[in-house]
Structure formats: C-alpha cells, structure tokens
C-alpha cells in the first residue's frame, strides 16, 4: 500500500497545537489521557487505562498532590467521572487493534508529559504568534511530546484505516511521566509489552534537522534519579549548638564530595545535584535537608558504580554529622542498542519517504530516555526493539522557553512510522 501524509496532515498539525496549549506534568496528565483515549476509541481501538497499563508498585517520582490536582483539573475540563474512575488515579493508556489475521505484535510508544518551563510570549515565537501557546504558566511542551502524541494518533488512525491490509496486532503506548524518567518502569511492570514481538520508539528534533532521521542513535545513558533526605536534631545555635545534629552540614559535605567521584575509565559518567533545600532559621541548627540529584553512566555497570559511590558518600556524611538519612529512587532509565532487524526496517521505511535523508551513521543521543526500559523489557522476552530520531529544525534547545519544532517535519515522521508498521505487519 502507499503511505501518504496528505490525508493526515491537518490532523497532525491541529492535534499537536491543541495539545501544546494544555501541557501537564508527569503523573497528572488526566485531561491529556482522556483526549487520547477518546481519539483511540473513535478509531476503533480497544483501550486499556489505569492499573491495566501501570503497575502502582513500580511508579517512580509520583506525587499524590500532583495527581490530585490533575484529577481536579480534568473534572474542570469536562472529563467524565466514568473515565476518571476507569483510570483509577493513573495516567497513560494503551490502544490495541487486532487485525484478526495471524502475525506479530508490534508496540509503538509515545510519551505525553511536559516540562516545568514558562513559555515565551515574544512576538516572533510561533506558538505565541499563531495563538497556541501554553495556557498554563510554568508548564510547557518544550520537548516535543505534543508532536509525539499527534504523530502517535495519526499513526493509530492510519493503521485503523488500513487494517484490512495488515496482519497481527498493534499496541499504541501513550506513556506518562517520561520527564525525570519516571513513567516507563510502571508501564513495563504492568506486563503490557510482555507479548510484544517488535517495539519502536522515537523522539523528534534532538541531534537531527528537518529532512533527516537517525536510525542508529547511541549514547542512551543509564541513569538513577534520587531524593536524599537528611534528618538531624535542632538546637539553639548560640546557647547549645553541641546538642544539635546538623543536617545541612551533612548535605553540603555530601554535595561537594559527590562531584568528586572518580569517573569510570570504561565509559561516560555524569553526576549532578540539582537542588538542595535545608534549614529552619538563622539561629537554629538545621535539622532537615533534602537533596535532589542524579547519576548517569554509559552502561548499567558504570551507572551502578556511580550509584554505589554516591550512596557511600551520602551514608558517610550522615554518620559524620550524627544524622539519619533516606534515599528514594525517583526515576531510572537504561541503555539500548537497536536490533539490526529493526534498523533495516527503519532504513527501508525512511528511504520510501521522498527527499528524506536516512542517517545510518551512529549519532550520539547524549541523554537518558526511559522508553529504553520498555524496549529492554521487550528484548528480555525475546522480542526486537529499536529507537530512532525524527529530525526537525528548532529555534532553541529542548527544555527552553522558545522551544518549537518545524511542523513540516511531522509529515515525514508520520510516513516513516507508517512505512515501518507496514514493513512489520504488512499482509503479504
């Protein structure tokens, strides 16, 4: 069959712009999920939500206040109580379409959350100029997840329109809480991809420009995100400082020592302490400190080295100040190597798109992406997985107030996705 984006072009643009106006942070995407569920059911998909696609025991970095605020916002936005009850407090969804003919099961994954950035209102910023800026100050689709969702829905629509010419089953995964790499672990642990033969994920822009795709990205850094809490004992800083146990001192000492962890000789490492909040008052020995940090490594082994080294420092600094400490894992991602069978599928899919350059040279992704957890889960159960990058020009970097994408890139990205689906599920 011939894949042409023209039929889905208006949908790609209009849905991307609609979703851009209504960003929601991870685990609060109830309005977004309701929109996605509605579209998938309109296209004829069976749709799973709630604990059918998220294992509550494996959720990371999930704040109940953020969840509750998202539910109330969804109510205010007209999301029906029946659907909210079906979600059961968990965002994200999976659409399933069975062609009724024997064949493989393909999973296509798209992320749905935003980042905590206030969008630019400058006159030359296209969302501001054309009236689809974020309506929620402090939150913005500044990483392209709006485009991911729009593409996912267009691909789902195309599959439904062409189901008679396909075989097997497809699962469209709309994953919550990618930012902070928090959502994939819960979705993977639900078992929703355990029967999947082929898994595909993608990101827009990154290291590629409009008119090209990368099918051999590398540099998916393993990472562990941690919240460290030190608990000491308050005391009067003048009368009896010796009675206190200084949690801030423990945290500050840990901060400095963490940055001095010896880097691993076998590959890339990263460490960052992004936030430190401590203390109660000028004349009180600080009894409480919270440090938000992360480690990264080129491989699981290297990331584990960084994690173990960090824990040793955190523990040692607690002991030195007579404080207690807790460590809570807030997010994680793993590394990924694309399976060659799917690299060939993506190459063929890209070469069918007129004017698109297929980058088969290795390109450095240079960050962490929790879609790798889902991909590795599929591989662990005997399936094949691959991740690719759809190029798009952008006026500024990801996670910045002026981030935007060249919407002209959406058509080519959609065609690559649809061509890949046809390669895998084509009823030849």
In short, what is this structure?
The chain is α/β, with parallel strands linked by helices. Helix content is 34%, strand content 22%.
Total count of strands: 14
The shape is globular
Mean pLDDT across every amino acid position: 97
H-E string: HHEHHEEHHEHEEEEHEEHEHEEHEH
Q: Order of strands across the biggest sheet?
A: 1-2-4-3-5-14-6-12
- How would you classify the helix and strand content by structural class? alpha/beta
Distance between the termini: 10 Å
C-alpha Rg (nearest Å)? 23 Å
Report the major sheet.
Answer: 8 strands, mixed
Low-confidence stretches: none
Helix content: 25-40%
Per DSSP, what share of the residues sits in E-state strands of 2 or more residues?
A: 15-25%
Number of helices: 12
Can you offer a commentary on this structure?
The protein is an alpha/beta fold and 428 residues long. An eight-stranded mixed β-sheet has the order 1-2-4-3-5-14-6-12. The longest helix has 22 residues. Helix 1 runs antiparallel to helix 6 and helix 6 crosses helix 12. It is globular, with a radius of gyration of 23 Å. It has twelve helices and 14 strands.
